[in-house]
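All the exercises in this workshop are built on plain-text protein records. The record below serves as our worked example for the rest of this section.
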Amino acid sequence: MNEYDSNRILDLVKPIGYLPTKNISEADCYILNTCHIREKATEKVYHDIGRVKKEFRNKKKPIVLVTGCVAQAENEEMLNREKYINAVVGPQSYHQISSILNRIEKTEEKINSTEFEVIEKFDSLNELKNSNSKTSSFLTIQEGCDKFCHFCVVPYTRGPEYSRPFSDIISEAKQLINNGSKEITLLGQNVNAYYFQEQNKHFKLSDIIYELNNLKDLIRIRYTTSHPKDVTEDLINVHKNCEKLMPILHLPVQSGSKKILSAMNSHTNAATERGEVYAESNDSSRISVTRLDATISVFGMGACRLRSTANGHVVARSRAISNAGNNALRNLCGTLCVLFAFLARRLP
């Protein structure tokens, strides 16, 4: 999603005279578009700015903006900690980036723009053509999350779930195809939670895929990241009926005991040391759709917030949790598994 946002930021600043450069030493403006899903990203921001300060030690200082989820989470604290930063701009406020740059050029004021203005953002972006001309392009259809798992920052940095209007998504997809894109990846923090209602019609992720499948010059369709809770029958069926949809399902699986998963508020009801829910979901997929034979899974073990109160339980269950991951992997027939351990950190 950050790549999509970065491309749109570039579309926004071109009209006021800014063009991309790969040579940092000639930059008039330096934008760091950040992700906060891992804590290390925050410190990387300060390290990167340190390198910029060194590069411009004997030159005119560029305007420095930090955008994205780290900016949203740290906001005023980031401005106070690093005076070299001119502005922090949250992921739901970057449509204002042109006016922010104009203000800084005139007044050199420090700006904190971290409001949740997701509807206003996409209304603004709809007025601006997406200029991305890559063969494989990203297209955001949904943002935010309402699930509030205890270990996750997404609801605090991206805000509540919001689904873009169906017609706006199809219009932008056609722009990308006209630009030369042959593959489109539909994006959302909970992409399969997409739901848009207009008058007496309602649209889900499957409706978008069916519509894209009919577009002549588009060859491949993907979507990420899906939540196991929102894998519905219509989504399973679309894999059977749409030949352009790639046979890949990304499931962020949480591995743990019932007690820990419940305390994590993980919403996955992973019943749980055997990964039963995920196995059942994938079995139904294979029964209905023989094409769906590749599953990407992300597993987590333990929960950082629980160590002080349930550490003994976590340690005692570590072998069972590992077995849960192994069993789920065998049942799901995954082609790729990305493992993350939870890190202790402060949520916004």
